[in-house]
Amino acid sequence: MLETLRRLTQAVNDADSLDEALILIVAQVRAAMSTDVCTVYLHDKRSQKLVFRATEGLNLGKVGQFGLGFDEGLVGWVATREEPLNLEDASAHPQFQLVEDLGEELFSAFLGAPIVHQRDLLGVLVVQQGERRRFSEEEEAFLVTVSAQLAGLIAHAELAGAIGRASSPEAQPESVSSSAARLSGVAACSGIGIGVAAWVSPHADLQTVPSREAESRHAELAAFRQALAAVRADIQQVAENLQSELGPEDNALFGVYLNILDDSTLGGEVASLIKSGEWAQGALSQVMLRHIRHFERMEHSYLRERAVDVRDLGTRVLGYLQDASRQQIDYPAQTILVAEELTASTLGEIPRDRLAGIVSMRGSSNSHAAILARAMGIPAVVGVEDLPLRQMPDQTLVVDGYNGRIYVNPHADLLARFEALLAEDQALSAELAPLAQLPAATLDGEAIPLWVNTGVAADVQRAQEFGAEGVGLYRTEVSFLLRDRFPSEEEQRQLYREQLEAFHPLPVTMRTLDIGGDKSLPYFPIEESNPFLGWRGIRVTLDHPEIFLTQVRAMLRANEGLNNLRILLPMVTAMDEWRAAQELISRCHQEVLTEGCTSAYPPIGVMIEVPAAVYLAESLAEEADFLSVGSNDLTQYLLAVDRGNARVAGLYQSLHPAVLAALAHIVGAAHRQQKSVSLCGELAGDPLAVPLLVAMGFDQLSMNAGSLLVTKRVLSAFTRDDLDQLMTDVLSLRSAQEVTLALSSALSERGLESFIRRGGPV
Ligand code: PEP
Ligand code: MG
User: Fold this and answer.
1) Is 59 in the same domain as 91?
2) Which strands make up the sheet holding 182-184, listed edge to edge?
3) Choosing from 43, 117, 156, 368, which is the catalytic residue?
4) Does the residue 466 lie in any domain?
5) What pLDDT, in 10s, does the model give residues 146-177?
């Protein structure tokens, strides 16, 4: 069964259109279950009908010709109840209904399963058989499994189809339901981005290459030939390297392998597709995928394995083609970067002044790449699982980074609404600009230090522009992530020196290397089945003192003559981790002193980002110099919700009462020990949370530079008494929804409703 499922999903995945996918599904399910009929009905949201969309065994002439209401027939019954229906004799069921000319009268046995994707009913999958019999439990389980597996693929294919229709010139906007051209993901950086999609792939993937017309057939053909030659050379090199290991017979395999790309075979097909006007990457991907599908459908396992070879070869050629074309891409003035997975290097592909928005299939609002997007202040939506990558390039896109939505080829009205919002945002930024020079304070004049989180160079400039009063979190791992090896002590010293100097005499809190979880260095891969509970943060650096010592030495040496350095330790879960780290720092300090460096011993702080540290907060505060709450991780670990998983993003609620109780507890623990405590997670820059965090007593809030002015504006509308009252009210609430509502009303009452929409992704 698993093998059948695997082949079915692969085939559906490779299908070029929804119709092709549905035809494959009905054919393969009917064959796998040896039934007489297999049919798919799809839910059309506009007409609220279950449309007869594909069949094997019933009248093909009726495909697309009729739809059943939810109160009609057995299909309506399955759709309404969203559960399977297994009948020995369908006609005996009270809701049975015959559709004229469909040919159902020949079949007695009926088994239907709903197709549900993310709580949304997409349709019904039905098998039927002539003989009167009840389908076995195994058969029922199989159909339910197939339908669950196919749901995501159908949702994806439906969207791709809708986008394709919307982009064709003859299509009327009305022909696409507005919900179909709208995709949902996770808001990663607030703001509205409007532009033209450009797809950037960090690695070659045949599956995601769009079809596109060649600008010059001649040039595309030459590029293809060049890429082929490069792959041939690579493979010949591999064959030579293995010559002594393999006998002549085995080695001959490479010859066969290379022949796949000959002009007489696939190479020739690709070339003729290019000559007919397709660009090289598209032609290659189409030909290769067609052959892969063909091989994968073969019964004989040896031949099926050839699919792997064809995919490998195709991917290699594509890699060369993409390398060559990358250098010559001319991105539109307003580009929306579309990627499967957003990485630092894909971000760097598009010149900053042309980048208007970011959309990615994977990732969540707190994944590393999202943090980078926020640092650059580019509206971003990530975790758009149903993103049909192949259809996206050259489409007009609206990125709604406030609500985590994207709109593909929006019709004129919708586009005008977003253009107006964008203009409103720009006006608001202009209105807030004078606040940059003013310190943050409440309405009755109590000063609240706002610090900034940094990681990339752009942060420094923006932080200074908006009047940050210190750096609460310098994510040192960002510069590690952008390299292909660990930076040397001297390289690090220079980087850290630049940070310290840029903000001097304001304090700069440098966090020691925080890798693991979703931040893995390409040159130091960490393979784990459960990375967020694995080797990350201080655990890695204590196991590798050479990395830790080099970094701390670089920080201390950079601090010479400035003395505005603070060191922060990530992911501490136990007192002995804190003590071990402190001992190493103290050893480094002794060392650099002996070498003649006069750097003062810096304050050392601990991040509170796991539940264990919440309970140890007072002991940690007693021994450390300060605490800083990492609310991104703390929320993840308290609520047991993976911060990088878009599927559970709705459950990731930093305003959950459990998180708020932990925050209040940490502030109390730090203050009982007369130590300062800051908050440096995304929550610190969320306009809804700001009044509450200040009321709790956080000594500093450290946020992205882009949130500084909004935060100043929000704070200036509350007196200390207002804040205290708000906290008393909110801390007695029992759900994140109630908290959000109470905080939203507090903002609305003060005329700050526009900041609610502009709220950070919490
Ligand atoms: C946090 O966890 O809140 C934090 C600030 O650290 P990071 O997001 O880098 O894990
Ligand atoms: Mg963290």
Assistant:
1) yes
2) 182-184, 405-408, 396-400, 192-199, 335-339, 355-360, 380-382, 186-189
3) 368
4) yes
5) 999 889 888 877 777 666 555 544 433 333 34
